[in-house]
């Protein structure tokens, strides 16, 4: 029997899953680590924490499974995107990693836009300059910590730092590199034009591979530390959302998934590089060689429900029952439309389609008849309206979705899935497996090592559908009208948000 490892190096924890060649889970382990915020709006992590978590979880799954190291043919790496890891000439980490949710680089985004031009930047990188992306972080270090920039010999992304620790290779792959804002997205290679205009030395960057390609093998040093074999290959892997797409079978035209985690994502596969000239959605290279994906992001999806749980629905408690289950049960008793209560989920500003850091959350239509249950359902509907905004941009770009998968914590809610089905006017499905990104990169490892023929056929064989929600016509019609009002509210409040920010 052959085995495959999938590592998901996330923001809060690293999860390692050992699969057999039928992609059944043999063992799993995870380890948490801290996030540091030295100043308001900053977010950093120590790459050594990721390394230790990766090492410990690999050791744990090997101990639990007792699988012979030589039987593990390949390893796939997934992880949080955009984080900046800088190494010196001795391969020591120079400074803590500035990660995806850090907001310090607004001035550097203006600098990038000025140097390259807003239109040209979108043509090459498929995105406007954003604080979350890596290029602006590189410029921030150069502008504010020149002594650290002068020491920099290598720039890596979070999962690619773990790859280096495992193999000694400086490598990345197209899906994660897409989020650096240095990659030519249509051509799937580093952009010499961008690098030249931003005065970033190409030698600092890793070699770019396709996601299933073998990038190296476990080094003797890491084999000794972890218990793995030096015969085990490490493939390119993928950024977290691209890996989740493989793990949910979103590998063909017409397929998409919606994730409701802390943030929310609508992600669609495309065989050609479709780019929104307004920069409202992200276009990245996907983990299927020669293909791309387009995704819209809403910043406070599950976060909105968590905020409600922590501050409003504090009495939804019952022994041995998850508060979210109780909240879902209460919301399910409220009619479609929450008795004309609408929620705008802009607790953290918004990305798609508004790119507005100043907009804030709103309950509109609140009256004396409304209860906590109304507010819970309104939040779920408001998040779904926001995800519908993302979906509308994809449709505007000519992307047709026949099959929508639901994942993330919110995707476990039957009510939320039904609301999404009604708003999207298509079937919304779940999967039997829940390993997501770790499963996705393990499949990539199977392709790279020859266990599977290719990504598409592997997903067709291995990804199994669970439940299915079908649109309810009457609710579909209501939400169509409700979405029109929802969109109008942002337009009416846009100037007020700005006034509030300057109050």
Low-confidence stretches: none
Overall pLDDT level: 95
CATH hierarchy, class of the largest domain? Alpha Beta
Would you tell me which CATH topology of the largest domain applies? Nucleotidyltransferase, domain 5
Number of strands: 24
CATH architecture of the largest domain: 2-Layer Sandwich
- Summarize the biggest pleated sheet: 7 strands, mixed
**Helix residue percentage:** 25-40%
CATH superfamily of the largest domain: ATPase, nucleotide binding domain
Give the overall shape: globular
| CA radius of gyration | 22 Å
Concise overview:
The protein has about 500 residues and is α/β, with parallel strands linked by helices. The chain is built from 17 helices and 24 strands.
Features:
24 strands, nucleotide-binding, D-xylulokinase activity, xylose metabolism, Nucleotidyltransferase, domain 5, seven-stranded mixed sheet, Xylulokinase, transferase, 2 domains, 503 residues, alpha/beta
Write structural notes for this entry.
GO terms for molecular function: ATP binding; D-xylulokinase activity. Belongs to the FGGY kinase family. Its EC number is 2.7.1.17. It catalyses: D-xylulose + ATP = D-xylulose 5-phosphate + ADP + H(+). The chain has 503 residues and is α/β, with parallel strands linked by helices. The protein has two domains: 240 residues, Nucleotidyltransferase, domain 5, CATH 3.30.420.40; 218 residues, ATPase, nucleotide binding domain (Nucleotidyltransferase, domain 5). The strands form seven sheets. Strands 1, 2, 3, 5, 13, 14 and 15 form a seven-stranded mixed β-sheet that branches. A seven-stranded mixed β-sheet has the order 18-19-17-16-22-23-24. Strands 4-7 form a two-stranded antiparallel ribbon. The chain is globular and about 65 Å long. The chain starts with a strand and ends with a helix.
């Amino acid at each position: 029997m052959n085995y495959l490892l999938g590592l998901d190096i996330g923001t809060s924890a690293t999860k390692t899953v050992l699969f057999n060649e039928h992609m059944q889970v043999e063992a799993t382990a995870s380890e948490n680590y801290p996030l540091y915020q030295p100043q308001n709006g900053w977010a950093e992590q120590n790459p050594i924490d990721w390394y230790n978590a990766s090492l410990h979880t690999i050791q744990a799954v090997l101990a639990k499974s007792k699988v012979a190291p030589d039987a593990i043919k390949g390893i796939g790496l997934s992880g949080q995107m955009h984080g900046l890891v800088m190494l010196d000439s001795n391969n020591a980490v120079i400074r803590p990693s500035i990660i995806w949710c850090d907001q310090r680089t607004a001035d550097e985004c203006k600098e990038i836009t000025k140097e390259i031009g807003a239109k040209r930047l979108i043509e090459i990188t498929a995105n406007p300059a954003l604080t979350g992306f890596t290029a602006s972080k590189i410029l921030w270090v150069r502008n504010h910590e020149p002594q650290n920039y002068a020491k920099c010999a290598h720039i890596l992304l979070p999962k690619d730092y773990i790859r280096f620790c495992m193999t000694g290779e400086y490598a990345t792959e197209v899906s994660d590199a897409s989020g650096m804002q240095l990659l030519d997205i249509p051509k799937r290679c580093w952009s010499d034009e961008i690098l030249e205009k931003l005065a970033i030395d190409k030698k600092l960057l890793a070699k770019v591979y396709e996601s299933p390609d073998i990038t190296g093998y476990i080094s003797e040093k890491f084999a000794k530390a972890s218990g793995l074999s030096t015969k085990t290959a490490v493939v390119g892997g993928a950024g977290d959302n691209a890996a989740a797409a493989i793990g949910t079978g979103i590998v063909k035209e017409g397929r998409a998934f919606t994730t409701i985690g802390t943030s929310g994502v609508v992600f669609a596969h495309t065989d050609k590089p479709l780019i929104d000239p307004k920069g409202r959605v992200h276009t990245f290279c996907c983990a299927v060689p020669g293909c791309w994906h387009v995704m819209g992001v809403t910043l406070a999806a599950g976060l909105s429900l968590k905020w409600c749980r922590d501050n409003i629905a504090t009495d939804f408690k019952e022994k041995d029952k998850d508060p979210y289950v109780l909240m879902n049960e209460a919301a399910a008793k409220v009619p479609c439309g929450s008795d004309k209560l609408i929620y705008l989920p802009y607790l953290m500003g918004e990305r798609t389609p508004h790119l507005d850091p100043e907009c804030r959350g709103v309950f509109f239509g609140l009256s004396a008849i409304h209860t906590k249950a109304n507010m819970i359902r309104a939040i779920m509907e408001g998040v779904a309206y926001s995800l519908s905004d993302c979906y509308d941009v994809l449709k505007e770009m000519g992307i047709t979705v026949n099959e929508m998968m639901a994942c993330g914590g919110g995707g476990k809610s039957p009510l939320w899935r039904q609301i999404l089905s009604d708003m999207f006017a298509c079937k919304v499905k779940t999967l039997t497996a829940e390993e997501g990104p770790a499963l996705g990169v393990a499949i990539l490892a199977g392709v790279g090592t020859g266990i599977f023929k290719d990504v598409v056929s592997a997903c067709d064989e291995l990804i199994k559908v669970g439940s299915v929600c079908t649109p309810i016509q009457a609710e579909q019609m209501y939400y169509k009208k409700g979405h029109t009002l929802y969109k109008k509210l942002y337009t009416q409040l846009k100037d007020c948000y700005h006034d509030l920010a300057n109050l």
